[in-house]
Amino acid sequence: AVMPDWDPEDEVPEYGRAVSWSDGDIAMMQEMVSMAEELLGKKIWVAKHGGKCSGRDQFADLMRCFVIIKEEVNRISAEGLGNVGFYGTVESMFKGWRDEKKIAFEHEKERAIRDGIKIAPQVTYKACERKIVQKGWKEGGYDFE
Question: CB within 8 A of 2, min separation 6: which ones?
Fold first, then answer.
């Protein structure tokens, strides 16, 4: 946990301050303005950036995480992962949903969804390495020192 010693009934400690960024959608801005006092009381700063900012302004866009995820999804196969542990749980869940008629996908589409879920941990682990994430933030001007 990020703040293991904090009770939600207590005031948020200074080290728990957060910033919530928004792109400035009108409905979102109206909601944030209506909640401003409550958010500030929880030490959440609300910040807005232009909806059409360039990539150099958006730290997340400067990270290669999303590019790497797309590359890895096309490269990694769930074939051979088997049906034990997490992989077995995914298979069991889909079988249960099919049996209960909660889902009805064409075979190939369902397999693609199951495989995507199975490889997601491996793909995100590789794509979201600390150095990859920090590189985007550094390029955007954030100083980790």
Answer: 16
